[in-house]
Amino acid sequence: MRNRERRFSRYTAAVVSRGSVLVFVVLAAWPLLAMAPQPLAAVVRSEFVDERPPYPSAHASTVVETPSGLVAAWFGGTGEGQADVGIWLSRHDGKTWSTPIEVANGVVEGGARHPCWNPVLFQPADGPLLLFYKVGPSPREWWGLVRTSADAGRTWSSAIALPAGILGPIRAKPVALDTGELLAGSSTEHAGWVVHMERFAGPLGALASGAAWSRSPPLNSPEEFGAIQPTILLHSPTRVQILCRSRQGVVTEAWSDDRGRSWSPMKRTSLPNPSAGIDAVRLRDGRFLLVSNPTTSSRGKLEVAVSADGVSWRSGVVLEDAVVGEFSYPAMIQTRDSLVHVTYTWKRSRIRHVVIDPARIR
Q1: 34, 68, 201, 329: which could form a disulfide with 277 (CB 3.0–4.6 Å)?
Q2: Helix, strand, coil share of the chain (percent; to 5)
């Protein structure tokens, strides 16, 4: 603040000789300038996860903190929906990201290969790291799989098929409930865009068991809202909010007061959305962050918004703002050191990692 005041003093001194009217205008505007947000001040670091990518196209990243550091994953290949698209992964050792490696592909019995989609990493409090992902010709025909890693993503189990009718977390991370259950936001696209919630209530060894999973009824009518890809915010052990991507130009929401077993009708929020992926997190200080494209038609601007209640939001940090280029499908977590990490698609070719100090978001 003192540096800003010194700069202002030098500026006013320079314009005094040019007329008192100019000085008056600047002085009148100074309270507004002083209150103007400084969004980039919260950014601690910005870098590429995949510095020299071995593929032309990358999209739909996910990020998690393990006891050994950060792990990020995404799908990459010649282009979204192409058969050679697999799940790629990189680990952060505290200094740099490792060279990305492909940890899953869509090869099925008989040798045919389908594209991979939408990886989601999750680290349970006890147990191996989980990597959920989808395989199939398109989002209308894909199926869910999961792999586990006992060494923070260095090596992985074979693919485990999820039970019929269960897709796993469709894009955003699941949450662990105080009951020990895992609550995941999911959706389907074969009969319109429809959101549902999935619950896993078994030991991790039962990921392929239909008895360990349950699925909610649809939470929206596609005729009213075409909604998919819910992200979850826990307001209390029992009160849960989901925010969803939609085709209606807005982020939609629904609420639960019984740990996600029943839900209020879906409704629109005041947040614009160009039918693009979002993610959200509750901070340890009680505030909520949402990362999204805050427009109705473009993925050129990517922004972190902040809220005290999950209802009223304001701009916090602008990550990207360009006329040309896509910056999309963000993932966001808060790590043990209280910093916030965001990964996102950068121009459909690479994955960018941004570290934010939430204490600097006013």
Answers
A1: 329
A2: 10, 45, 45
pLDDT above 60: residue 230: yes
| Alpha-helix runs per DSSP H in the chain | 2-16, 20-35
**Rounded mean pLDDT of 237-266?**
98
Report yes or no: 144 and 120 within 8 Å, Cβ to Cβ. no
Highest mean pLDDT: which range of 12-16, 36-40, 45-49: 45-49
Stretch (H or E) spanning 334: strand 327-334
What DSSP state is assigned to residue 98? P
pLDDT at 40: 54
Query: What distance in Å separates the CA atoms of residue 111 and residue 108, rounded to the nearest whole number?
Result: 6
- How far apart are the C-alpha atoms of 94 and 108, rounded to whole Å? 36
Could you give the percent of the chain with pLDDT greater than 90? 88
Q: Is 11 left (phi over 0), alpha (psi -120 to 50) or beta?
A: alpha
Q: Are strands 57-66 and 69-77 parallel, antiparallel or unpaired?
A: antiparallel
pTM, two decimal places: 0.89
With the CA atoms of 332, 326, 147 and 172 taken in that order, what torsion angle do they form, in degrees rounded to the nearest 10? 40
Per-residue pLDDT reduced to its tens digit, 132-185: 999 999 999 999 999 999 999 999 999 999 999 999 999 999 999 999 999 999
Which residues lie across from 58 on neighbouring strands?
Answer: 76
Please, which pLDDT band fits residue 129 given cuts at 50, 70 and 90? very high
pLDDT in tens, 258-290: 999 999 999 999 999 999 999 999 999 999 999
For residue 128, the surrounding DSSP H or E stretch is: none
Residue 362: what pLDDT?
80
Query: Which amino acid type is present at position 206?
Result: A
Residue type, 314: R
Tracing tokens 């799908």 back to the chain, one arrives at 75
pLDDT of 1 higher than 50: no
The angle subtended at Cα 258 by Cα 253 and Cα 264, nearest 5°, is: 30
What backbone torsions phi and psi does residue 111 show, to the nearest 5 degrees?
A: 100, -10
Q: Interhelix angle for 2-16 vs 20-35, to 10°?
A: 160
CA angle centred on 93, ends 89 and 99, rounded to 5°: 40
